[in-house]
Amino acid sequence: EIVLTQSPATLSLSPGERATLSCRASQSLSSYLAWYQQKPGQAPRLLIYDASSRATGIPARFSGSGSGTDFTLTISSLEPEDFAVYYCQQRSNWPPRYTFGQGTKLEMK
Amino acid sequence: EVQLVESGGGLVQPGGSLRLSCAASGFSFRNYWMHWVRQAPGKGLVWVSHINSDEITTYADSVKGRFTISRDNAKNTLYLQMNGLTAEDTGVYYCARDSAAPIGVGSDYWGQGTLVTVSS
After folding, report:
1. What is the spatial distance between Cα B118 and Cα B112, in angstroms, rounded to a whole number?
2. What CA–CA distance (Å, rounded) separates A88 from B84?
3. Could you read off the pLDDT of B80-116 as tens digits, one per residue?
4. In terms of Cα–Cα distance, which of A77, A50, A44, A78 is closest to A64?
């Protein structure tokens, strides 16, 4: 089973700052990686699919990069509504099986 | 408007069974891969199972042999039959539509979730 390790566990930043979240895979994923945002009491929201493609309606300040085993979600300038928990998700090629990282909590400093 | 509405959660004793449903609307359900994802209270997301448009299924190791995912395309409904439930199965269960399959990964629509509590 492919394990995803997200770092840091908690990131404390202020509005306007740049956030860089990391997701490292135990095996190469090609580009089979997605990023989600989840706020308390809400379902996850897809931000990035296939490592670097922004989902519909996602602001341009969110960007994804990486391939192989190292992936990054960058929020260029934090807005107050961006403070939430972020998860990465991978898919193995075939048969398709999926895992999530343990999450990074982005909190307001 | 795409909607996914889960139902069927509740309180069940250890060893018991429960069947979750996810009613889909606003899109061509038969053409999409679908997932079940769960979240224990205060914990992270855990992928449970997937079914593709050809009804091929895969499961997380933690539920294999106990849970069965299925779909009824005529009723636009996704199911999760859960047997042999343990306290570790407690959590909110979400259904999600996979928008990136068959080539990639990413679920663009999620239901609101249904709570399953396994306790005596």
Report:
1. 20
2. 29
3. 999 999 999 999 999 999 988 888 899 999 999 999 9
4. A50
Question: How many percent of chain A have pLDDT more than 90?
Answer: 88
Neighbours of A4 (CB within 10 A): 20
Contact partners, residue B107, CB within 8 Å, separation at least 6: A34, A44, A46, B35, B37, B96, B97, B98, B99, B100
Q: Which residues of chain A lie closer than 8 angstroms to B52, CB-CB?
A: 96
Residues of B in Cβ contact (< 8 Å) with A56: 108
- Which strand (E) or helix (H) includes residue A5? strand A4-7
As a whole number of angstroms, the distance between CA A109 and CA A50 comes to 31
Other residues' Cβ atoms within 10 Å of the Cβ of residue B53: 17
Round to whole Å and give the CA distance between B103 and B116. Answer: 32
Chain B residue numbers touching A85 (CB-CB < 8 A): 44
Strand partners, A32: none
Asked if B5 contacts B61 with a C-beta cutoff of 8 angstroms, the reply is: no
Q: Does B101 touch chain A (CB under 8 A)?
A: yes
Check CB contact of B65 with chain A, cutoff 8 Å: no
Distance CA B80, CA B94 (A): 11
- With an 8 Å Cβ cutoff, are B105 and A48 in contact? no
Nearest CA to B2 among B93, B114, B107, B115?
Answer: B107
